[in-house]
Design goal:
The protein is mostly helical and 278 residues long. The chain folds into 2 domains: 78 residues, no CATH class; 189 residues, Hypothetical protein af1432 (Orthogonal Bundle), CATH 1.10.3210.10. Helices cover 69% and strands 0% of the residues. The protein is built from 17 helices and no strands. α4 runs parallel beside α5, α5 crosses α6 and α9 crosses α10. The protein is globular and about 45 Å long. Pfam families: HDOD. This is Signal transduction protein. It comes from Thioalkalivibrio denitrificans. InterPro entries: HDOD, RNase_Y/CdgJ.
Length: 278
């Protein structure tokens, strides 16, 4: 907990991106200039625009092209912020942590959460569910970076014994004294993240949560369960069904969404590998 609370303040680029999230008058040039303040972030955004997942057809060589021709303002704002906020956490010493799977779930959850949010009787703002999908497991990432040996033991044992996701959270608590969601709550407070996103990071995995942003949390939870099923090539899961019940959505909504996204799973895997290695 002390390590989390003593993390450095947000870098200038992250603070600027957070300010830009709710701006309706943000121009392509203004966003590009913020991203170009960070050479590493610039390289990753250009790399994403050139990935097979986005399949632009022509090579992208700069941020302006990446934003204007391939990715779009809203997507780049959220992706850039997700990349910057995950930047402080180096998980290479945590042998049990699967970085590729993490990014698949993050980007898959973000992508799937948008159409799920629109399928509700009262649709949600897509910006918050997308960013919530990207960041919902940031607490897990932080714990793997700060406590690599302990987290490696927990995650390796969970994978070998096929432990359920909610049980993994309890195992982490037994080892470290706090859950990944509680770590996410500390980060959200420390960095003053927007309330809907903070709620998702804090309540990640809790299908019984009914606070102010419970639908945002539930949509991201459902999207995360579907992304995990796609990554592990499973057809269905109990966790997915719990979220469907909470949201009052028919199973057909998810099955149709899965079929539409199945052709893009391999390119999403490649994109996740790119994110994990860069």
């Amino acid at each position: 907990m002390r390590q989390l609370q003593s993390l450095a303040p947000l870098p200038v680029v992250a603070r600027r991106l957070l300010q830009d999230l709710e701006r309706d008058d943000l121009s392509l040039g203004q966003l590009a200039s913020v991203i170009e303040m960070d050479p590493g972030l610039t390289a990753r955004i250009v790399g994403l625009a050139n990935s097979a997942y986005f399949a632009s057809g022509r090579p992208v060589s700069n941020v302006t092209d990446a934003v204007g021709r391939v990715l779009g303002l809203d997507l780049v704002k959220n992706l850039a912020l997700g990349i910057v906020l995950s930047g402080p956490f180096d998980t290479r010493r945590c042998a049990g942590f699967d970085t590729e799977a993490f990014w698949f779930r993050a980007m898959g959850s973000a992508t799937l959460a948008v159409p799920l949010a629109q399928a509700l009787d009262s649709p949600l703002e897509h910006d918050w569910v997308y960013l919530g999908g990207l960041l919902h497991e940031l607490g897990l990432l932080a714990l793997c970076a700060l406590c690599p040996d302990a987290m490696s033991r927990v995650l390796s044992a969970a994978r070998n014994e096929a432990v359920r996701e909610d049980t993994v959270s309890m195992c982490v608590h037994a080892e470290l004294g706090l859950t990944p969601a509680e770590a996410g709550a500390v980060l959200a407070r420390r960095w003053r993240l927007p309330s809907p996103v903070a709620a998702v990071m804090t309540q990640c995995g809790d299908h019984e949560y009914r606070g102010e942003y419970w639908r945002t949390n539930a949509v991201v939870g459902l999207a995360s369960a579907v992304a995990k099923d796609l990554y592990e090539e499973r057809e269905d899961s109990d966790l997915r069904n719990r979220w469907l019940v909470a949201l009052g959505l028919p199973a057909r909504t998810v099955s149709d969404l899965v079929e539409r996204h199945r052709p893009r799973v391999e390119s999403l895997r490649a994109l996740s590998r790119h994110m994990a290695s860069s």
